[in-house]
Each structure stands twice: as structure tokens, then as C-alpha cells.
Amino acid sequence: MTFIVVTLIHNYASRKSLSNSASFAKSVYLKFIAGMIVLIIIHMLLGLVPFIGFILTIIVSIALFTLQPGLVLGRHGVLQSFSVSYSAFKRNKLALFMASVIMVVIELVIVFIFAIPFIAAGLLTVFSAAGTGQLTAAVASKLPLLAVTGVIMAVGFALATLFGTGFQTDVYLQLSKKRKQK
């Protein structure tokens, strides 16, 4: 999945073929993985702070909103990419906050729309079991329906990820003035 994200970031920025972007992704993949590991460690440590850890994690996520595209498209090392992303946040706090909110809301809407069939199938299963008291039998009888609607929901997650990756990359390109004109 991570390799696909790196490929999509490059492809969105360069507008070349996916095979060219996949070849490029191989050259920055380890840097991207290292950056994501550092970010995960930061999030885990902040999450340990009692009462406000979750809020601190959200703040750091907004402050490092352009980190992923910066790791792929920037010419910096891992730690310098963190610095560049944070500098972009300091210069554009409101814009990056609004971009984060807009991105998360749209991603949630996409996921929710694609989750509706799964939720409906789950409710149908639970309600059919309520009359008989045999949840296992109800799940077994509705398993094909649950599987198909689960795949539909997975497609929604994939589309939300694709949208979020493109949105973050576009914001990064606008802030770094690297957006190629059509």
C-alpha cells in the first residue's frame, strides 16, 4: 500500500505514466518509509500523554500535513522534510488547518457512502437473528451479502485514500509553487 501511495504522489505531481512514477517511487521508497516510521513514533509518544494526547496527535498531523508529498517530491532527507513541512505550516496555519478539515470531511463522506451497504447488511443480519436468537446461523446465511458489501466498503476506503493523497499532494504543490500548469 505504501509503495502505491508513493507512486500516486509522484504521478499526481508529474502527470506521467504510472510506470514512470513506479520507477521513481523505487528511488524514494526507503526515505518515505523512514519518514512514516518517525511520524508513527511521534504520534505514539504524543498519544501517551494523558488526557490531551489525542489532541496533540491531531495538531501534529495538521502541522505536518505536507510531509508525505514532501518526502516523495522534495529533495531533502527525512528530518529536513519534517522541518520543511513544519515551516510550511508556520507560514500557512489557517490554510493548512482548513485543508485538513476539508480533506477529513470529504474522506469520511466517501467512506460513509460506501459503508452504507455493509451497515444495512449488518443490520439485516442482526434483525434476522433477533427473531431466532441464532446470530451465528444468521451471519452464516448472510455471509455472501456481507462479503460483497465488505468489498464495496473496501473500495470506499481505497477511494478515500486516493482522494486524500491527491489532495495533500495538490496542497503541497501549491504551497511549494511546483504545480505544473496544464
Give the topology, please.
Blueprint: H1 2-14, H2 18-47, H3 53-63, H4 67-73, H5 78-91, H6 93-132, H7 135-141, H8 143-176
Explain this structure to me?
- This protein is mostly helical.
- It has eight helices and no strands.
- The chain has helices at 2-14, 18-47, 53-63, 67-73, 78-91, 93-132, 135-141, 143-176.
- Helix 1 (2-14) packs across helix 4 and helix 2 (18-47) runs antiparallel to helix 3 (53-63).
- The longest helix has 40 residues, at 93-132.
- It is globular and about 60 Å long.
- The two termini are 29 Å apart.
- The mean pLDDT is 92.
Descriptive terms for the model:
single chain, 182 residues, mainly alpha, 8 helices
Outline:
This protein is mostly helical and 182 residues long.
Q: How many H/I helical runs?
A: 8
- SSE run: HHHHHHHH
Shape verdict? globular
What's the average pLDDT? 92
